[in-house]
Amino acid sequence: MSVSLERMNEWIRKNEQYEIINIETVVLPNMHSKSEGGSTDSELSFAEFRPVWYQFFRVWYR
C-alpha cells in the first residue's frame, strides 16, 4: 500500500488544478471466479480457499 499511497500523493501534487473532495480506501473481494455469478452474486464462501482482496485508493476531485 505504501507504493500506492506515494503514487496517489504524487498525482495530487501534479494536478493542483483539481479540488480534492475526498479520499477513500476501498477494499473489495475478488468476485471473478468461474463459480461466482459476478455482480449479481454477493455470496462468498471461504471453506475451501483463501479469498483474495483488492485494496486501493479512490480520489474524488473536481
Can I get a quick summary?
The protein has one helix and two strands. It is of the alpha+beta class.
The radius of gyration is 16 Å
Structural class: alpha+beta
- Count every beta strand, where a strand is a DSSP E run of 2 or more residues: 2
Poorly predicted regions are none
If you average the pLDDT, what whole number results?
A: 82
Q: What best-fitting shape do the alpha-carbon axes yield?
A: elongated
Bin the helical content.
10-25%
Strand line-up in the sheet with most strands? 1-2
The first-to-last residue Cα distance is 25 Å
Strand content: 25-35%
Taken in chain order, the helices and strands follow as: HEE
Helix count, DSSP H or I runs of 4 or more residues: 1
Number of domains: 1
Main pleated-sheet profile: 2 strands, antiparallel
Helix and strand topology:
Elements lengths: L1 H13 L5 E10 L23 E9 L1
Antiparallel strand pairs: 1-2
Main attributes of the structure:
2 strands, 62 residues, 21% helix, two-stranded antiparallel sheet, 31% strand, alpha+beta, 1 helix
